[in-house]
Amino acid sequence: ERQALGPGALLLPGFALDRVEPLLQAVEAVQQQAPLRHLVTPGGLRMSVAMTNCGHVGWVSDRSGYRYDPLDPQSGRPWPAMPPALQTLAADAARAAGYDGFAPDACLINQYLPGTRLSLHQDRDERDQGAPIVSVSLGLPAVFLFGGAQRGDRVARHALFHGDVVVWGGASRLYFHGIAPLKEGSHPVLGERRLNLTFRKAR
Ligand code: MD3
Ligand code: FE
Question: Where is the Fe2OG dioxygenase domain positioned along the sequence (predicted)?
Fold first, then answer.
C-alpha cells in the first residue's frame, strides 16, 4: 500500500512497523553518545523540537546559521555512526519508492513532546537535492502540514502514525512543510512522545 502525498512524495503506511524494536534500540544507543538537545535558530529562538544526529554529518543550528557538521558541537566529537538497522530501513524504503542505492550520510532524530511543533520550513541545506529524504514516524500521531513551493501556498494536513514512512523526492523535496503542535496522549511503545527520523544525503 502506498499513497502519493504530493509530486514525488510517497507515503508507505506502516512500512517500519515490523522493525520498531531494533530501530528504537539503535536510537537509544545514538542518544547515549549524543543526547537530544534544543537547538537555537539563527534568530535566537529555542526550538521546541529536541534533536540529535547520527551518520557522517549532523544537522545543526545556532546563531550563525544552519549547517551539516561532522562534529557534535556539544561534545566536540564526531556524531555516532549510523547503526545498520537505520541505514537498511532507509535504503529499503527508498527502493520501495523507486530510489535504488540510497546511501544517506545523515540521520536527524527529532523528539516531540505534547505541545511541540515545527513551523513551516523548506529543507534546503543538503548539497544533493536530487536525492530523496526518507522520514520515519514513531510514537504519538502527528498532523503533518504540507504546503507547496511558495511559502504562501495553501497548506494540506495529513496524519502521520507510528511506523509510517514517507519518501520525499521530486518536486515535493523542496515544498514547505511542518508539524502542528503535538496533541497529548500516550503511545503503548513510546509513551508521551513522538520520534521522527529523517535520512538525508547531505554531502
Ligand atoms: C517534505 N521533520 O526534520 S518529517 C525535518 O516530523 C522535518 O520531524 C518533520 O521536517 C518531523 O526537516 C517532518 C517529514 C518530512 C521530512 C523532510 C521533508 C517532510 C519533508 C523534506 C522535504 C519535504
Ligand atoms: Fe523538514
Answer: 103-203
Question: Residue 60 has which C-alpha cell?
Answer: 545543526
Tens digit of each residue's pLDDT (9 = 90 or more) over 44-66: 999 999 999 999 999 999 999 99
What interface predicted TM-score (ipTM) does this complex get? 0.98
- Residue 52 Cα distances to 58, 140, 157, angstroms: 8, 19, 26
Helix axes 20-33, 84-96, angle to 10 degrees: 130
Q: For 50, which DSSP code?
A: E
CA 96 to ligand 2 center in whole angstroms: 21
Instruction: Tell me if the pTM is above 0.90.
Output: yes
**Structural domains of the chain ordered from first start:** 3-200 (2.60.120.590)
